[in-house]
Amino acid sequence: MTSPAASAAPLPGAPFVCYQNGRLMVEGVALSELARQHGTPLFVYSKAAILAALAAYQRGLAGREALICYAMKANSSLAILKLLADAGCGFDIVSGGELERALAAGATPSKIVFSGVGKTRAEMRRALEAGVGCFNVESRAELDVLSEVAAASGVRAPVSIRVNPNVDARTHPYISTGLKGNKFGIAHDEALAAYRHAAGLPDLRVVGIDCHIGSQITESAPYLEAMDRVLDLVTQIEAAGIPIHHIDFGGGLGIDYNGDTPPAADVLWQQLLGKLDARGFGSRKILIEPGRSLVGNAGVCLTEVLFLKPGEQKSFCIVDAAMNDLPRPALYEAFHRIVPLAEAGSTADAVTYDVVGPVCESGDWLGRDRVLAVQQGDVLAVLSAGAYCMSMSSNYNTRPRAAEVLVDGVSARVIRQRESVQDLWRGESP
Length: 430
Known about the structure:
The chain is of the alpha/beta class and 430 residues long. The chain is built from twelve helices and 22 strands.
């Protein structure tokens, strides 16, 4: 394996991915070597990229009482969770399974916030038993059920209410969560009544307020608007005699997939903290829930070119990764850069391809209209694949899920073994 070259320029949106001596590298490791050793499809993550993304948040919140809770739905691989736990992060979870994963990775239970619109009684009981720091509650009905479960468990449940501020995050409608028509949270104009209701339930303990407006947000304005609306509510709630100990502003900051220009995390938080100070809330404890922005640009997916198929209207580059491995294009028509592992010289032989997988769906594509000079047997890298790829992957078409590798400098280790086909029917009976 090769030592990193300081002069190599990183690829757009991939700060620790670059060509060195004609080979595509993650930190100091050649991706061609990883593909040869471990096969494809293969997810590869940069430890340095994850920690650098986290450091931007830590800089932005320096000197404040703040807790960064990684939204683990973005990527819940145990090694990544442990890396972030060791760096001081808490976790934002949305299921009982995520709770167990976080605990298995060494999470501090009091640094866990439990979000989600449909928590079951069993999940509530287990979270109370584990001692999670807070339940982000999303309906009055959930307040009542959580109170019942807490009473039966002999504890008081710490709660914040997720407020839906009706703020447009200006993102894809499937990942927008802060508008009136979304299923998330309690409407802004109903929040005060919900807090009064929560405060009247003896087995609940109100500790905070929560807001999350969407994902892949690339502008500061929606955050600033949402903060104003949340702080207005905090003023009303505390005037009603209900103290709010922490304010959770959620996550959702976007990354660079295709020339996107979201604000840097430290710059964004300088703006938000300025508003917080101006409104007299500068000493309040802050929680945030970043996910994609910590891991998205830290990952690539390697995939082998199986066939090149020319056609009358389209030419297809058929690869061994598919919508079950990388579901974002099929779900959101999302864009991921796709580049060869060998640095292209002349583009004379380049062809415009749709890069597609082997799954039997027309929606199984990874990239449309990509100009590539490739041959059968080449390996391509799909960039910005660290978030919402492996965590959303499936076994559709009875396809085993990919292996995962974590790179640290010039070393790399397998953090998830490739599934076997036998793994896929474990627990089934013919």
